[in-house]
Design brief:
About 20% of the residues lie in helices and about 45% in strands. The chain is of the alpha+beta class and about 100 residues long.
Length: about 100
């Protein structure tokens, strides 16, 4: 499950993939994003809530003057022990 910064709720890999296939190719052709983990809360040994700071960049990783995102990811380990995002909520931060 993923909720975009503009409030669109996407359920399941197919819906998330269809949305990103439509939105990301155009967006990533002209800009990118950088991320910083700012807090991790262990829920169980195999589940964590992760607070992230996200900002838009040029393709050369220069920050752009755009609102930042504040994603929260719920992450869990899979059968092989790798951490995966299982749910996410992004929020745009507007100055004011």
């Amino acid at each position: 499950m993923w909720v975009t910064a503009h409030g669109k709720r996407l359920i399941g890999r197919d819906e998330i993939a269809a949305f990103t296939a439509t939105v990301l190719p155009g967006a990533t052709a002209i800009s990118g994003s950088s991320y910083e983990v700012v807090h991790v809360a262990a829920i169980r040994p195999d589940v964590a809530a992760v607070a992230v700071r996200q900002w838009a960049t040029t393709l050369d990783d220069v920050p752009l003057d755009e609102p930042e995102g504040r994603p929260t990811y719920i992450m869990a380990t899979d059968a092989s022990g790798d951490w995966k995002i299982v749910a996410g909520q992004n929020t745009i931060v507007f100055a004011g």
